[in-house]
Write a structure and sequence with these properties.
Number of helices: 6
CATH class: Alpha Beta
Number of strands: 7
Distance between the termini: 31 Å
Order of helices and strands: HHEHEHEEHEHEE
Strand content: 25-35%
Strand order of the largest sheet: 3-2-1-4-5-7-6
Number of domains: 1
Largest sheet: 7 strands, mixed
Length: about 210
């Protein structure tokens, strides 16, 4: 699929996302998606008591969602491939007095963790995968979620106009990716807040249960 738009959400040529791309973005400054607080779409889930048990923040960046979960008293783990982001996350955890395990890990290698979680949060990770990597990610996710566990995903929506930012995702793509061994409860219109104009982008918030 030919696209344009930089991985940091700013105008420019779009390119495949590699570990070194993310590491470079964090090393250079604050990426557009790192708003310094949890995304409102996930805060609303927390307020409704939907975050439970052992929680994994996959593609955690500087850790805001794992930190939110830990502040609620949950056993929280965050994984990311960008060491610079994880270093910032660990500093935040110390400053806030909460305990979170942050691991440098490839999200396509979830089964290698050898652990199961009750809740998985994904803010802006699913939409970075190429078509060939999606099944691998979903299979690994299923292996890492307990039966009845929940995967909450926030991703860019095809409703977002323009050609900047990451790949847009359609509802039917989400449904197709989670057709086998999952129950898609809801796919709701949402927003992903960003640090640059226009301040937020159209998104989907999907609530998906492992069956």
């Amino acid at each position: 699929m030919s696209e344009s738009g930089r991985p940091d959400g700013l105008p420019g040529p779009r390119q495949a996302r590699r570990t070194e791309d993310f590491a470079a973005l964090y090393a250079a400054g604050t990426p557009a998606w790192d708003i310094g607080r949890p995304q409102p779409a996930f805060v609303e889930l927390a307020d409704r008591g939907r975050l439970v048990g052992r929680l994994l923040d996959v593609g955690c960046g500087t850790g805001e969602h794992a930190l939110m979960a830990a502040a609620l008293g949950l056993d929280a783990t965050g994984i990311d491939a960008a060491a610079t982001a994880l270093a910032a996350a660990r500093i935040k955890a110390c400053e806030r007095g909460v305990s979170v395990r942050f691991l440098e890990w490839d999200a396509l290698e979830l089964p290698s963790l050898g652990e199961q979680f009750d809740t998985v949060l994904d803010c802006g990770l699913f939409h970075v995968f190429e078509d060939d990597d999606r099944p691998r990610f979903v299979d690994g996710l299923r292996a890492s979620l307990a039966v009845g566990g929940w995967y909450y995903m926030l991703c860019f929506s095809h409703r977002q106009p323009g050609d900047w930012g990451p790949r847009r995702i359609r509802e039917d793509e989400i449904i197709a990716s989670f057709a086998d061994g999952w129950e898609v409860e809801t796919i709701e219109p949402a927003r992903i807040e960003i640090t640059h104009d226009p301040g937020a982008a159209y998104a989907w918030r999907a609530s998906i249960r492992r069956s």
